[in-house]
Amino acid sequence: METILLVAGFIVAYLIGSIPTAVWVGKWFYNTDVREKGSGNAGATNTIRVLGIAAGIPVIIVDVLKGWFAVWMMRYFIPAGWDQEIVIYAQITAGVMAVIGHSLPVYAGFRGGKGVATLLGMGIALYGAPVWISVVVFVLVLVATGYVSLGSMSAGIVFPFVVVFYYKISNPALIAMAVFAALFILWTHRKNLLRLWKGQENRILYRKNKNDDNASS
Length: 217
Fold this sequence. Notes:
There is one protein chain. The protein is built from ten helices and no strands. The protein is mostly helical and 217 residues long. The protein has two domains: 1-125, no CATH class; 127-204. It is globular, with a radius of gyration of 17 Å. The N and C termini lie far apart (36 Å). 48% of the residues are buried.
């Protein structure tokens, strides 16, 4: 029964992550499928590029909340008395399921975004303060360069160092997750990294409608 309850929690986390915020906002309020314009990604960055900041703000808020809620709600699926180490593993798994849901949403033909905002929400729930340092790094790099992709990658690279060396978190699962998050962000932004190297990456304020695959989330 405990295993069934745990698996049910992971499925719920995936379904929560699958909420295609960018797709629904675009279709319901702008009669536009953001996956057919701009980068083709169903994330906040592409929503801002295609539809503007007013559309992008609710998208990023909901996408962050998806990751946070997936971790938080696991308390109702974890049997009382479980060891804290096991609880953390279960919460991490739920958060990862939400990120997978965002990237491969069952409600939107498995065509989603890169999952950065949902990963951020997961991180806020699991780590707290260390995540906000990475957010500051993201904002500083974005303001300085105008590149969301560069800001995301910079924040991702900094994060595990902040977790291990500044906050001295020793839990193996949390350290592993921090490293995974950095690698995940770099992997999903590999094309952006190549364009940055070639000087072909577009800044966030540059809006266009052709498929350039520049979105960060």
